[in-house]
Specification:
There is one protein chain. With 421 residues, this protein is an all-alpha fold. It has one domain: MFS general substrate transporter like domains (Growth Hormone, Chain: A, Up-down Bundle), CATH 1.20.1250. Helix content is 76%, strand content 0%. α1 runs antiparallel to α5. The two termini are 22 Å apart. The N terminus and C terminus are likely disordered.
């Protein structure tokens, strides 16, 4: 989701708002709201699984398809949409993707059956991969060159906020009204973002397109392949388990719906703080920061089932888990940016795609384990995947593979060389 496009960030020739700073930042804000809405919609079902499963008469594992379905389609759309977009105005693509997101939320909110619900989630997946790949590049082209890092950071803040607070926000709204109200509220947010983007985002022409040859060039590199596999295992470790955190807290730890909302809110808040705290260390030693977060994730997944009868311990473990995942996306995005500095567009598309594969496969396999062996066993799977991810990280150090000392492609931080990668 980091970079796309053929123009330098903030190129004045492509920036009709160059002489109107307020309008430019309002345009960036509209994309930020859109990013928040996209990622919130993606993670919304995690906190709503028990209610949705009960209303449609499906198992929690089957309800997990609400996460699996968009993940599969987003994995395809991330590189696929950019390969097919050619030189189409990126503004038009952003608007079309926002329209699809609005349709997804409305279909989900009024779905009469679980099958229709999955249709709505499929629309999300079709638009999600492309949006993540486009959003930050669009932000960098809306402002003056020296302000591009700030614009990018603003979009990242929207993505980060959604990643860590989308789930508790959904459960909070569901607690006040119903799970359908959560989707309707997100739909209203999407509509606001869509109107704002239509009014404020200028034309964003592209003179070049992502080529299949660029993707294949990265996949032929051993370092890039191993990095993407590591990303898959670490994200898979999280989502194979986190998809079912609400049912676990309800069924195994005897938490009330209100308590679950508060716990997930705590997960989100501490994850948000962790994201910014680790940004101060990730530049100095990327490997150590990433390793620490994977270890915390692994220990949390192992501890949750063992401590399920002690509510305070469960809460502490969930918060530790939040610390880990609050920082993991940042660490891995910087890792991939450094690994693919010469082909940032291809690296971004593959990064987004592999994350969506991990979400889809992780939640799908996790759902099967939940239905046949229980959620504690599924958490064991997540811990095992984290161990594999940690081993892959260690393999880079073992073979002496160092990343190039390239700045983060998003421009949010400019890491120093990390000689311990």
């Amino acid at each position: 989701m980091m970079m796309e496009g053929s123009h330098p960030a903030g190129d004045a020739t492509n920036n009709p708002h160059a002489d109107s700073p307020l309008r430019a930042w309002l345009a960036v804000g509209s994309v930020t709201v859109g990013a928040f809405a996209f990622v919130t919609t993606e993670f919304l079902p995690v906190g709503l699984l028990p209610q949705v499963a009960a209303e449609f008469g499906v198992t929690p594992g089957t309800a997990g398809l609400m996460v699996t379905t968009p993940g599969i389609l987003a994995a395809i759309s991330a590189p696929g949409m950019m390969l097919g977009a050619g030189r189409i105005d990126r503004r038009l693509i952003l608007l079309v993707l926002s329209v699809l997101l609005l349709a997804s939320n409305l279909i989900s909110a009024f779905a009469p059956s679980f099958t229709v619900m999955l249709v709505g989630r499929a629309l999300l997946g079709a638009s999600l991969g492309g949006f993540w790949t486009l959003a930050l590049a669009a932000a960098g082209r809306l402002v003056h060159p020296h302000e591009a890092p700030k614009a990018t950071a603003m979009i990242l803040a929207g993505v980060t906020c959604a990643t860590v607070i989308g789930v508790p926000l959904g459960t909070f709204i569901a607690g006040l009204a119903s799970w359908r109200a959560s989707f309707m509220a997100t739909g209203v947010l999407v509509a606001v973002a869509l109107v704002a983007q239509a009014m404020l985002v200028p034309a964003l022409p592209s003179k070049a397109a992502l080529r299949m040859a660029d993707l294949l060039a990265l996949l032929r590199r051993t370092h890039s392949r191993r990095s993407l596999i590591m990303v898959a295992f670490v994200f898979g470790a999280h989502f194979s388990s986190y998809t079912f955190i609400a049912p676990f807290l309800q069924q195994y730890a005897d938490f009330s719906a209100q308590s679950i909302t508060l716990v997930l809110l705590g997960f989100g808040i501490i994850g948000f703080v962790s994201n910014f705290a680790v940004s101060a260390t990730v530049g100095r030693n990327l490997s150590a920061s990433l390793a620490a977060m994977i270890v915390i994730l692994m220990v949390s997944l192992l501890a949750m089932p063992a401590l399920r009868h002690a509510a305070p311990a469960v809460v502490a473990t969930v918060l530790a888990w939040g610390i880990a995942f609050g920082a993991i996306p940042l660490c891995l995005s910087v890792w991939i940016q450094r690994s693919t500095a010469d082909l940032p567009e291809a690296g971004s598309a593959l990064f987004v795609g592999i994350i969506q594969v991990a979400i889809a496969v992780g939640s799908s396999v996790g759902g099967g384990i939940v239905d046949h062996a229980g959620i504690p066993t599924d958490f064991g799977l997540g811990a095992a995947l984290a161990v594999i991810g940690l081993a892959l990280l260690g393999s880079f150090r073992a073979i002496g593979k160092d990343h190039a000392a390239a700045p983060a492609a998003a421009g949010v931080i400019a890491p120093a060389p990390d000689c311990n990668c």
